[in-house]
């Protein structure tokens, strides 16, 4: 018997569609409310430094109006940390950020930036914010993540999602399995996400140590075809059935 698996819906790319034309629609808050009604367990938003999709007012409105705890994805730059201190999100996920990247390209380097990350974790902990570190499935990074005092990690599944051969995908999958097991053995809460879609999520959902998957782009893309509520429901069904078939959860 394993724990039920949770779905955090990332609504960034609802804002991407809006920003592409500088309109006021589609509204990320409306998408968040639909996701909640459709069974999402959390809402995630990334306020990037360049504000390419989510804007400051989106984050404030979602935090205020959505019943589920907001997971605020953030870089560890001073400007964004100060924004988070004012926002006081119940959850935050620290991510690396490069202005030129299309999306978050790798996990945060906890080993290389330990002092800064630990200091940001402490500032957020003072707000009663549950902090998560977005990291690659690397045991040394996980060991250092534990030392920061953050209760949660989110394993970057991008290399698994991007693998182009069965062999590479199997290798990346085993790295995630081992990372999840190790992190759980240290007492960390283990989430995962990035690049997950309707075909590659079931395998990840079977990993019993994983608490929550954060999924954005694939759900927004599917929503264009079937609507936001159905897109969320389909993804959640895949996750729950995968976990149930593996462990009877
Ligand atoms: N988790 C984190 C930490 C992310 O940065 C992102 C992308 O914003 C996601 C999950 C969701 O990735 P995707 O949009 O590929 O589902």
Your description of this structure?
With 249 residues, this protein is an alpha/beta fold. The chain has helices at residues 12-21, 28-37, 56-65, 78-87, 114-125, 139-147, 158-162, 166-185, 201-205, 217-226, 228-247, and strands at residues 6-10, 42-46, 70-74, 91-94, 130-135, 152-156, 189-193, 210-215. An eight-stranded parallel barrel has the order 1-2-3-4-5-6-7-8, surrounded by eight helices. Strand 5 (130-135), helix 6 and strand 6 form a beta-alpha-beta unit. Helix 2 (28-37) packs across helix 11. The termini are close together. The structure holds pyridoxine-5'-phosphate. Pyridoxine-5'-phosphate binds at residues 10, 12, 46, 73, 93, 95, 103-104, 134, 154, 193-196, 214-218.
Describe the secondary structure blueprint for this structure:
Blueprint: E1 6-10, H1 12-21, H2 28-37, E2 42-46, H3 56-65, E3 70-74, H4 78-87, E4 91-94, H5 114-125, E5 130-135, H6 139-147, E6 152-156, H7 158-162, H8 166-185, E7 189-193, H9 201-205, E8 210-215, H10 217-226, H11 228-247
Parallel strand pairs: 1-2, 1-8, 2-3, 3-4, 4-5, 5-6, 6-7, 7-8
The structure holds pyridoxine-5'-phosphate (PXP).
Taken as a percent bin, the fraction of beta residues is 15-25%
Number of helices: 11
Please write the string of helix (H) and strand (E) elements. Answer: EHHEHEHEHEHEHHEHEHH
Q: Radius of gyration, rounded?
A: 17 Å
| Major sheet details | 8 strands, parallel, barrel
- Summing up helix and strand content along with how strands pair, one would put the structural category as alpha/beta
């Amino acid at each position: 018997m394993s724990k039920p698996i949770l779905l955090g819906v990332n609504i960034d790319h609802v804002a991407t569609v809006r920003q592409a034309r500088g309109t006021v629609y589609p509204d990320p808050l409306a998408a968040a409310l639909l996701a909640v009604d459709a069974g999402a367990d959390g809402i995630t938003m990334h306020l990037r430094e360049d504000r390419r999709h989510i804007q400051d007012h989106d984050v404030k409105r979602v935090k205020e109006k959505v019943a589920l705890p907001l997971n605020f994805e953030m870089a560890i730059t001073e400007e964004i940390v100060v924004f988070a201190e004012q926002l006081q999100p119940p959850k935050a996920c620290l991510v690396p950020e490069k202005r030129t990247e299309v999306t978050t390209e790798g996990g945060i380097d906890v080993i290389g930036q330990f002092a800064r990350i630990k200091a940001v974790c402490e500032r957020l902990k003072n707000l009663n914010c549950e902090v998560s570190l977005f990291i690659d499935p690397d045991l040394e990074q996980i060991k250092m993540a534990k030392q920061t005092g953050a209760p949660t990690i989110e394993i970057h599944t991008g290399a698994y999602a991007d693998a182009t051969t069965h062999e590479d995908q199997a290798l990346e999958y085993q790295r995630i399995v081992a990372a999840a097991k190790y992190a759980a053995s240290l007492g960390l809460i283990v989430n995962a996400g990035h690049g997950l879609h309707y075909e590659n999520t079931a395998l990840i959902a079977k990993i019993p140590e994983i608490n929550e998957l954060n999924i954005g782009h694939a759900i927004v893309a599917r929503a264009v075809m079937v609507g936001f509520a159905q897109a969320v429901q389909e993804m959640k069904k895949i996750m729950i059935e995968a976990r149930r078939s593996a462990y009877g959860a």
